């Protein structure tokens, strides 16, 4: 009888091992939900591991005997969350990728590396909201008997992800959306005053040179007036630097120039053609008196 029981038990174990080898050793669980918020509003809740306690399925109030620790940066790649004690066992989760537009990815080690899980929470725009997809995938190792846990893991883990997405939607949709700064108005163009082109002044006609009218000498009352050309200034010959210029009228071609005021010819008498203006000779400098012992030299 005992022998039959041993044979039956061995057969059952062999059968279980054979079935276990056929069962999958890996699992993949995926759940999705649409949140009425942009990806930038969802990102702070998933990139900060301390905020997972506000919406995640593994909250401290559900597992009072567990201890929670956090390390690394508060948000983004490198953030670490560890737990131990209670019914949750022990494990570590660390973010390996973080992007406000596409979501986060993480690695999770459970029971000191006995089970390894790779997960991600990804974003995709959907209408006015965001389609959030949560995926966990991992394995249970090469033990054929552990393969029987895969269906149980899929069922339990799927429920956790659904609970977490529902809590995330509640937190995000009840929080005010981050106000986006209104675009700054473009500066108004400063009107540029164009300087008016200066209007050219009308040319002022230059006054013609004055013409002196004089009667020809010995002419009768009915003689026509003769135009005298303008007076040209000329210096008297042999005059010093301080001598003032003497006005000499220019004579027409073929006639002698009239005498200047310094020649002593009366203006009422005609000037002969041969006459030329006379300029008084310069007065010679006085001879210095001879000193004692010297005789005066003849001049």
Main attributes of the structure:
single chain; alpha+beta; Alpha-D-Glucose-1,6-Bisphosphate, Chain A, domain 4; two-stranded antiparallel sheet; 25% strand; elongated; disordered C terminus
Q: How large a portion of the residues is in β-strands, by DSSP E? A: 15-25%
Q: Could you please say which CATH topology of the domain at 27-174 applies here?
A: Alpha-D-Glucose-1,6-Bisphosphate, Chain A, domain 4
CATH architecture assignment name of the domain at 27-174 = 2-Layer Sandwich
Discrete helix count: 4
Shape: elongated
SSE arrangement, N to C: HEHHEEEEEEHEEEE
Q: Report on the biggest sheet.
A: 7 strands, antiparallel
How much helicity do the residues have? Answer: 10-25%
Q: Assign the structural class, choosing from mainly alpha, mainly beta, alpha/beta, alpha+beta, or little secondary structure.
A: alpha+beta
CATH class of the domain at 27-174: Alpha Beta
Average residue-wise pLDDT: 72
* Spatial order of strands in the largest sheet: 1-7-6-5-4-3-2
Number of strands: 11
User: What is the first-to-last residue Cα distance?
Assistant: 185 Å
- The whole-angstrom Rg is 62 Å
Query: Superfamily at the CATH H level of the domain at 27-174?
Result: START domain
Structure summarized in a few sentences:
The protein is α+β, with helices and mostly antiparallel strands and about 300 residues long.
């Amino acid at each position: 009888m005992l022998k039959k029981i041993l044979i039956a038990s061995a057969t059952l174990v062999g059968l279980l091992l054979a079935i276990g080898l056929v069962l999958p050793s890996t699992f993949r669980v995926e759940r999705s939900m649409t949140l009425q918020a942009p990806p930038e509003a969802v990102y702070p809740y998933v990139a900060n591991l301390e905020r997972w306690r506000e919406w995640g399925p593994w909250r401290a109030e559900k597992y009072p005997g567990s201890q929670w620790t956090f390390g690394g940066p508060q948000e983004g790649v490198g953030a670490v969350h560890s737990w131990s004690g209670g019914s949750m066992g022990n494990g570590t989760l660390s973010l390996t990728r973080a992007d406000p537009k596409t979501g986060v990815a993480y690695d999770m080690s459970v029971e000191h590396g006995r089970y390894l899980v790779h997960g991600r929470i990804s974003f995709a725009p959907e209408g006015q909201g965001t389609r959030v997809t949560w995926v966990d995938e991992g394995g249970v190792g090469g033990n054929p008997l552990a393969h029987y846990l895969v269906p149980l893991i899929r069922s339990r883990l799927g429920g956790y992800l659904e609970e977490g997405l529902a809590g995330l939607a509640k937190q995000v949709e009840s929080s005010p959306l981050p106000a986006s700064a209104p675009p700054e108005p473009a500066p108004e163009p400063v009107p540029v005053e164009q300087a008016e082109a200066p209007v050219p002044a009308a040319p002022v006609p230059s006054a013609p040179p004055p013409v002196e009218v004089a009667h020809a000498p010995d002419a009768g009352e009915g003689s026509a007036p003769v135009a005298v050309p303008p007076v040209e200034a000329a210096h008297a010959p042999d005059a010093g630097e301080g001598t003032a210029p003497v006005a000499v009228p220019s004579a027409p071609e073929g006639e002698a120039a009239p005498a200047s005021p310094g020649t002593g010819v009366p203006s009422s008498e005609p000037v002969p053609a041969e006459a030329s203006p006379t300029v008084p000779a310069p007065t010679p400098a006085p001879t210095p008196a001879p000193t004692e012992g010297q005789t005066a030299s003849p001049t």
